[in-house]
Design a protein that fits this description.
Number of helices: 13
Helix content: 25-40%
Number of strands: 21
Distance between the termini: 29 Å
CATH superfamily of the largest domain: Glycosidases
Number of domains: 2
CATH architecture of the largest domain: Alpha-Beta Barrel
CATH topology of the largest domain: TIM Barrel
Strand content: 15-25%
Largest sheet: 8 strands, parallel
Structural class: alpha/beta
Radius of gyration: 22 Å
C-alpha cells in the first residue's frame, strides 16, 4: 500500500448527482459541471479530509455505471480539460483524487458492443461473456449492463490502457466497481502492469462479503470496502446489540493483520447512516467508531451534514441518496452545522493519532448498550467508551493513572469514571 494512504481521509462524491445532472438518459446536453465540484475543494479541506473519491465521470448512458466510453468525460460533467483542471486544483491543496472504474460491465451503447450486436461474427463478440445458449451475460439481472469477458486477454489489455490513461493525467487511485464479480486472476494480470508504470497508485476493490484478505492478496489490490463493519456499526447501534459489533471487530482485526480496509458509514448504494439509526442521540457513536478504528476512512457527501435518505429497490430508488449540492458551500441551507463540527473534531483527533490507521481493537467491557474498547498500535493507545443505554456506563480502569478525556464526555467522581446515558468518550 502506498505510504500516503496512512494519512488520507476521503470525501466521496457521486458526481452526476452532486451537480444535478439528469441521470435518466433523457438529457445529455454538454455542460461544464465539474467546475462546480472544484468550488467545494476548500470545504473538503476545512472538513479535514484530503482525498476526493469521485464516482463515475466517464461517458455513460444514464447513471454512470453503464459506461460507453472510458476515455471520454461524460458531457453532462464537462470534458477532459475540466477533469484535468479539477485534478490540478485538488493537488494544489494537497488533495488526492480517486476515480471509479467500472470494469465488470459496460452499457449497451458501448461502441464495440454495438458492433457485436450488429454482427454475430464480428471479433468484438469475444470481448463479452455469453451464456451457453449464446446470449449476452448481464450484471446481476440488469439488462442494460453487459458483462465483459475477463478471460479474454484483450479485455485485460483494454483495462490496463484505461487505468494508465487517467493515471497519466494525474489521478492517484482507482476504485474497482463490482470487483467481487470479476475473477481475482484478472486483477492479478492487470494491476502489476499498471503499477509498473505508476507504482504509487492506490487500488481499492468493491467487495461486499467473503474472504476480504484473500481477495486483496490474490488480486493484488491494496484494499477492499469493509461492508461487514459498515453493517455491524449501524445495525448494532440501531438494535442496541453491541455483541454484533464486537464480533465484527474480531474479523476486522484479522483483516488488519494483512491489509488496511476502506471504512465508511455511507456511500452511493446504501441508505444514509442518519436514516439507518433512528435515535439521533446515537448518530455520533457511529462516527466515533469510523474515526477511532483501524482503516482508511471515507465520508460520503451529505453525511457530514447529517442528511437523511432511504435507498429503495425501484427505478430511481438511488436518487434520494445521490442528491444535488448547491453550486458553492456558501449556498448551503442552514442545518447540519453540529454534525459538520463533530466530523471536524474527530478527523482532527484522527490526524493527531495517525497510528489509528492500522490500529487493532480489544474489548474492555461489553453489554448490549455499552461498549468499551481499547485501540492500540505499538505503545500508542486510546480507550473508547460508547453508551447507548439509559444509565451511566461505569468504566473499569486499566491502569493506576486516571485517563484524560480527549473527546466526548466522561464524568469523574474521585477515582470513578462514567459516561452519561446516550453519550460517548475517548480517553488517553
Amino acid at each position: 500500500m502506498p505510504d500516503w494512504t496512512e494519512h488520507v481521509i476521503w470525501w466521496h462524491v457521486y458526481p452526476l448527482g452532486f451537480v444535478g445532472a439528469d441521470t435518466t438518459g433523457a438529457d445529455h446536453t454538454p455542460v461544464h459541471r465539474l467546475q462546480q465540484i472544484e468550488s467545494w475543494l476548500d470545504y473538503l479541506v476545512t472538513l479535514g479530509a484530503n482525498g476526493l473519491a469521485l464516482g463515475p465521470v466517464f461517458r455513460s448512458s444514464t447513471h454512470g455505471y453503464d459506461t460507453i466510453d472510458y476515455f471520454e468525460v461524460d458531457p453532462r460533467l464537462g470534458d477532459t480539460a475540466d477533469l484535468e483542471h479539477l485534478i490540478e486544483a485538488a493537488h494544489s491543496r494537497g488533495i488526492r483524487v480517486m476515480l471509479d472504474g467500472v470494469f465488470n460491465h459496460v452499457g449497451r451503447e458501448f461502441a464495440p458492443l454495438e458492433v457485436a450486436l450488429a454482427d454475430p461474427a464480428a471479433p468484438e463478440n469475444g470481448l463479452f461473456r455469453h451464456t451457453d445458449s449464446g446470449e449476452l451475460e448481464v450484471f446481476e439481472g440488469h439488462g442494460a449492463l453487459v458483462a465483459l469477458d475477463h478471460g479474454n486477454p484483450e479485455v485485460a489489455d483494454y483495462v490496463v490502457s484505461v487505468m494508465n490513461h487517467w493515471l497519466d493525467r494525474g489521478i492517484d487511485a482507482w476504485r474497482l466497481d463490482a470487483a467481487y464479480s470479476v475473477p481475482v486472476r484478472f486483477w492479478n494480470s492487470v494491476l502489476p502492469r499498471v503499477r509498473e508504470r505508476h507504482p504509487h497508485t492506490y487500488v481499492l476493490g468493491e467487495v461486499l462479503h467473503g474472504d476480504y484478505a484473500g481477495f486483496v492478496r490474490d488480486g493484488g489490490l491494496d484494499s477492499v470496502t469493509q461492508y461487514e463493519l459498515w453493517q455491524a456499526i449501524w445495525h448494532s447501534i440501531s438494535e442496541a446489540n453491541f455483541f454484533e459489533l464486537d464480533w465484527a471487530l474480531k474479523r476486522h482485526n484479522e483483516f488488519l493483520e494483512t491489509f488496511v480496509p476502506y471504512t465508511f458509514l455511507g456511500n452511493h448504494d446504501v441508505t444514509r447512516i442518519a436514516t439507518q439509526i433512528a435515535d439521533e442521540r446515537h448518530h455520533p457513536h457511529a462516527l466515533v467508531l469510523l474515526f477511532t478504528l483501524g482503516g482508511t476512512p471515507a465520508v460520503y457527501y451529505g453525511d457530514e451534514r447529517g442528511l437523511t435518505a432511504l435507498k429503495e429497490e425501484r427505478v430511481g430508488g438511488d436518487d434520494a441518496i445521490r442528491p444535488a449540492y448547491p453550486a458553492t458551500p456558501s449556498e448551503l441551507p442552514a442545518g447540519g452545522e453540529q454534525v459538520y463540527a463533530l466530523h471536524q473534531e474527530l478527523i482532527g483527533l484522527r490526524r493527531r493519532h495517525s497510528w489509528l490507521h492500522a490500529a487493532t481493537s480489544t474489548p474492555v467491557d461489553l453489554t448490549n448498550t455499552g461498549y468499551v474498547y481499547e485501540v492500540a498500535a505499538g505503545a500508542n493507545r486510546l480507550t473508547v467508551a460508547l453508551n447507548i443505554g439509559d444509565k451511566p456506563l461505569m468504566l473499569k480502569s486499566t491502569s493506576t493513572a486516571l485517563p484524560e478525556t480527549v473527546a466526548g464526555r466522561a464524568d469523574r467522581e474521585g477515582e470513578r469514571i462514567s459516561v452519561p446515558p446516550h453519550a460517548w468518550a475517548i480517553l488517553a
